[in-house]
């Protein structure tokens, strides 16, 4: 343990023929991404407070929460349309309110007054305390959503530009197409798991994109190196060789990042576990897409150009 | 490549030691106030507190200016003995029709010599049908809006300081927004109420002749009374502005029950107050706060000392708050709270504990993984990882950055990326060994090739996260900042520190085979 490694991840010198399954990989990915898109439109993402607007108050009551008592307390403060539900432990309750639409005058002031009313209502319950109270106006939430999407879009463009600059056009396009496929799957995952889509989730998705890009850059880097080294090797074979050569790094890194994020998903508390689960999902998707999507796409796009002078690639 | 000069070694170790020293302020108390002591701040999500996003009502700033311009126009024309018809305020300026066409030129001349707040603030033009138009320039309006936000920030700061909040942070965001962060205050109701009041105090003469008329004549406004029912007609012209106050305090009303607010004018205000009261003995003078008449006493004689008192039948709390607001000054426009987030202290403590434990567990797992799969070089990577954590903490402390929960997640991800860089190096060396290279050649080639890949992958990540920092808000920003810093420290610790450890080991032992 202190000198020589005790374990090995991947046996030395694997020769797996990944490109043989390229169409299966692409087809599976396409099906999953299309399914995710369908899920995105129906039933759609569970938007969090940041993007939906509204009021969310988390409170801890003394002893198990009695929803009827809480509803009565809210009613006495003239707060209506409140969704009261449990979350976390039995003592914790989550109160949700929709804010007036921003077409109405004074909606911001009314929203703020509503938060105070909920606080007053909770103050009447013996031993209860407010853990968190957030209120986001309708106009702000729209803006936050726009900025979040802008950040996602700009990151994708920057990644595209960088890879294009450092590698070649085919690499950049394959990488970004793969990233978009990863992104749609992450959205599908969010729809299925009902994790709320908010600013923290945007950060999580950007992390996935960053991680996934990192993975692709490593494989591409090796492809580029091998393109110079083996001038006549068919592209399919060359890509397979590159993936096999980097396989042990790819899996090793994925495993460590997975291990690093796992405790956060399991014990990180309500605010971080959603983030961590999305990351875990993204690690699996990002790693597999480097091998099964990004590489085949590169093969499809670059078959003609990247190996123009070589003999035609062997059909498998 | 395999030679590591003493100087280089000394600087790498030096940076690590400096990093360690910079981390200290986060863990021990400041021994002497003369030492610079920068530490990481905990975000509100970790320590509890409130975050308010305020929006300055820009429409009101513009409307205010237009009202002022209309008033200024009227006063100027009256002073010059010129008449006008249909004086009206549009969305961008003021228009009126001269009494007779002969007066057009004198009108234009008088108006063009009106003082401006900003050079080129408005233009005076003769429009269609003999109308005269005063148009505010968009640039001046923008400048005015910018000034309004700057001034609002100052007033907000004074008001919040008066409440005794500890370490409030007040920052500008975008064109018309202000962020207020209040650590430790988990119920911002009182602050919200204080900020929700403009506290604009003005003094107007009462238009007694207009009492009872259904439609107020030009230059007169009907303002509601703050106590009881009804409205009172007052001249729109502001005779004395509460902005000229220097002090205000609450005291018991000497003439009977209730509380009063005493105020003192500066020399300009005292002068104006003296002049107006001298010229209008016997008339009523309305004290207007936020467009409500608080009281309208009859002027018994010239008031020259610059002191005044409002007795509006206030309660002690009301009088104290009004005095506080008057002292802090009026907001140039109303502020709306458009986003509010507050976190109670117990949730903050829960979060930091859960997050901290999870981070520690993740770290231990990563260290074990590296040791098991990479042996000696894995341990070197682990040392680099530890140094990475120290350096990240150091840089965050140096910036006095705010650590939030997403920021903690960012640190975790950085650890993953740092591990990746070390794995890349180790795998490359393995490959070279498998190709039958000697130990020295394998290390050399391994480093060289891995470096290109590491730089490529990290540069891509860096770009994405810098963008995220620039365009992100709130939690996304904290996250992007941590990762951006993390990428820089990762490059340092893997390309310089873990390489140094490996090279030093090689130079010491000269092994024939590598432990990979």
Automatic annotation (TrEMBL), chain A:
Protein's cellular compartments: Cell membrane
Gene3D superfamilies linked: Multidrug efflux transporter AcrB transmembrane domain
Pfam families: Sec_GG, SecD_SecF_C
UniProt GO MF annotations: protein-transporting ATPase activity
Membrane-crossing residue ranges in chain numbering: 21-41, 144-165, 172-193, 199-219, 251-270, 276-301
Record keywords, A-Z: Cell membrane, Membrane, Protein transport, Translocation, Transmembrane, Transmembrane helix, Transport
Cellular component annotations (GO), alphabetically ordered: plasma membrane
Domain Protein export membrane protein SecD/SecF C-terminal: 128-303
Membrane topology: Multi-pass membrane protein
GO biological process per UniProt: intracellular protein transmembrane transport; protein targeting; protein transport by the Sec complex
Subunit structure: Forms a complex with SecD. Part of the essential Sec protein translocation apparatus which comprises SecA, SecYEG and auxiliary proteins SecDF-YajC and YidC.
Family: Belongs to the SecD/SecF family. SecF subfamily.
Role this protein plays: Part of the Sec protein translocase complex. Interacts with the SecYEG preprotein conducting channel. SecDF uses the proton motive force (PMF) to complete protein translocation after the ATP-dependent function of SecA.
HAMAP family cross-referenced by the UniProt entry: SecF_B
PANTHER family (UniProt xref): PROTEIN TRANSLOCASE SUBUNIT SECF (PTHR30081:SF8), PROTEIN-EXPORT MEMBRANE PROTEIN SEC (PTHR30081)
The protein, known as: Protein-export membrane protein SecF
From TrEMBL, chain B:
Alphabetical keyword list: Cell membrane, Membrane, Protein transport, Translocation, Transmembrane, Transmembrane helix, Transport
Chief place of localization: membrane
Statement: the UniProt record of this protein carries the keyword Membrane: yes
Pfam family, one: Sec_GG
GO biological process: intracellular protein transmembrane transport; protein targeting; protein transport by the Sec complex
Protein export membrane protein SecD/SecF C-terminal domain boundaries: 337-506
Protein name: Protein translocase subunit SecD
Source organism of this protein record: Komagataeibacter xylinus
